[in-house]
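Continuing from the previous page...

OK, I double-checked the sequence for Potassium calcium-activated channel subfamily N member 4 against my notes and this is the correct one:
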Amino acid sequence: MPSPTREDGAAGSAQAEVGAAPAESRGGDGRGLVCALEMELTNRSLSSKMDCVSCDELINRNCADSPEVSVPLSALGKRVTHMEGDDLCRLIDRKFLIEDKKRLCTLALGTALVGILLMIIHAEICPYVYEPGSKVSLVINCSISLSTGCLLILIIAFHYKDIRLFIIDHKEVDWRIAITSHRVLVITLELLVCVIHPVGSYWEVNLYANSSSAAPLCISSHHDKALLDMELLLSMLMFLRLYLVHRAILLHSKVLLSASYRSIGSLNNINFTFRFVLKVLMNKHPARTLLVFILLFWLTASWMLTLCERRSESLTTGQMDTALWLIAITFLTVGYGDVAPKTSCGKGVCLFTGVMGVACTAMLVAIVTEKLALNKGEKHVHFFMMDIQISKRIRHAAANVLRECWLLHRASPAKGSRDEHRRHQRCLLEAIRVFRHLRLKQRKLRDYVSEMVDLPKMQMIMCDLSANWNNSYRELEQRILFMEQKLDELTRCFQQTSELLFEVLRHRNPEIR
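Thanks. Re-ran it with the corrected sequence; updated structure tokens here:
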């Protein structure tokens, strides 16, 4: 495997760097650079494999007005070095390789879907074709094999571009370093999955191809049951090619194409995998994503169930409408029991459908819960109004306690009957119980509200406290400086006063020195 060469072209990143240069430096060098980029684009359309050295020779021959082409980087007149030019070429190659990977992944997914569609046509029109070795049979089987071969070529080309991208990202390392055991295992598994397809032709109709069967398989008396099971298994395993959907979603997602996402993600050590893209889709469009997945899974599993149940003598499970009903009640984990699969293959499909139904139901419950939940503003308003209502009820309960205390005092046994006294005692105890219950409810509510304090609010509070502390510190420093100035003035005044006293005393008593 030879070391891959660069694919030169006019990339958007190179144009952005040229556009970022100052206007005064876009003279002869700027025109030379534009000419060079146009020449590179022309050469790429003629020959997709050209080295950067030959590209520089073409630039020097065709752009005679600029003997030396260099990219201005700043207003100080700095020129890019040879190493920076290599980095620019690598960025251009990387951009085109990513575009090639996207295109190859799209073609591979389309080819896989065409093969699956041909397989479905092969299975559906089989009961209506009874001529063994017909031309329709030969054309459809050859088309399935041809699409499988094209898919294998596209998969190999995709991984070849991926290896070249690895080489560019690691600064032109040897291509053997990229061939790791994990990569070899992944490529081998993909090729094995994509090579699976039914290779048989339309056969003669056996005993099951009668009027009582809904849609019998095209089987022949010259083939045994093991071969029929293998043909059925190969037809169902063709749906494994749908793993290409997650790769297409990843390569065509706005998350991967956005430079802002990639820059911030690299700073936070985030790998842009399909798991991250799926989380973003479930966060932005949860209902739409889950609905599309459930519909596609429902139709696919129903058709697979009909394909499995066609070999049985059942009159209902081999029909599409009955399969749709059975998959639906199995997916929802209801299971009325009116319809049941007869074959082992159909039981396996129903088992897998039940597992996926439990998972999708859990995600659906989570989405509905999130949609019905209150946001922060609504929660603050709701709990604020609840706190006001509980405060009013506490005031009323406290007033009831005081009222019952006064009534109990008035209805003392000495002044009235004992029945009235006991009644007021019960009313007082009930009022105290209600008061304590409301106080406990208010305490729990305030504890829950205090836990809802979000981080931005705490950050704003801490910033305000820090600003207040800084202002207080500055004011304290100013006061200390003012006090030092006053102390210096007092010291000077004391010195002057002592000198004056000394002079006065000396004037009165000349003997004092």
